[in-house]
Amino acid sequence: MSPPPRTALVTGAGRGIGQAVAVRLATEGYRVALTARSADQLEETARLCGGKTLVLPADMLDPAAPDAVVSEVERAWGPVAVLVANAGAGDSAPVARITDEMWQRQIDLNLTAPFRCLRRVVPSMADEGWGRVVVLASIAAKRGDPYIAAYTAAKHGVLGLVRSAAAELARTGVTVNAVCPAYVDTPMTDGSVETIAATTGRSAEEARRALERKQPVGRLITVDEVSDAVMFCVGNADGGAVQS
Q1: What is the pLDDT of residues 172-212, one digit of tens each?
Q2: CA-CA distance, 64 to 171, in Å (whole number)?
Q3: Which of 71, 124, 220, 241 has the fewest Cβ atoms within 10 angstroms?
Q4: Residue 106 in 3-state DSSP?
Q5: How many angstroms separate the CA atoms of 70 and 85, rounded?
């Protein structure tokens, strides 16, 4: 009798990168648990996945959400073998105009929420002797750009979290990686384009071209390119969807 497929949990799975990663994991044979704030978007992702999915609407800004979501997955399918911590968002403002609330939201969503998810799944992964954690960081984790100081600080922090956790878990069979794309062609980038246009007087087309010119390849990254990078991390050393 064949062993059951491994279980993956994707946060921010309703659209963009999270949706692309979830579909790719399902295609590779994983059971995929999907979480994000919008139930409607999650249902669409589940439809695209086509395989066995769990739809678990939750807001990762809620401190209780990571534990609650993982507990639901464990009740249905057992331990999470692959975590893709993708939920996140960016705010744009000059440093002098960043409010305490804006700052805290960026830290909570882009750093603390991935930490809570990682903390929750790592013990069972280590017990199983196999696990994959992939955090969607950003090129902002490696450099500083103007007007996104809070987002950049959070992403620098999450990259530090990943590096430390990877070193700690290196001998357990659990890998922890971060994927750090530049601007990706997603609804989040659409929001950045709208903000640039509104604050600079440029047209949306001009704002989008400005972001494209920031990329060495001269265009926005595609969600499929990001999902390729995520799957490379998942497949590191032994990434089969079916347990051995």
Answers
A1: 999 999 999 987 777 777 666 676 666 667 787 777 787 77
A2: 30
A3: 71
A4: helix
A5: 12
> The tokens 């990078």 sit on which residue?
229
Active-site entry in 30, 147, 151, 183: 151
Structure tokens at 26: 């399902």
How much is the pTM? 0.89
Query: Two tokens at 70?
Result: 């993982």
pLDDT per residue over 97-118, tens digit each?
999 999 999 999 999 999 999 9
Q: Which fold has domain 7-181+223-234?
A: Rossmann fold (3.40.50)
d(CA 228, CA 24): 9
d(CA 130, CA 192): 38
The strand order across the sheet containing 53-55 reads 53-55, 31-35, 7-11, 82-85, 131-136, 174-179
| Catalytic residue status for 147 | no
For Cα atoms 153, 224, 65, give the angle at the middle one, nearest 5 degrees.
50
Place of tokens 């991935």: 114
Q: Where in the chain is the domain with CATH 3.40.50.720?
A: 7-181+223-234
The token pair at 180 is 């750090």
Q: Alpha helices of 129-179 — where are they, by DSSP H? A: 149-169
Q: How far is CA 165 from CA 3, 20, 57, 184, 234, in A?
A: 29, 25, 27, 26, 16
Phi, psi of 177 (to 5 degrees): -135, 160
Give the rounded distance of the alpha carbon of 18 from its chain centre: 6
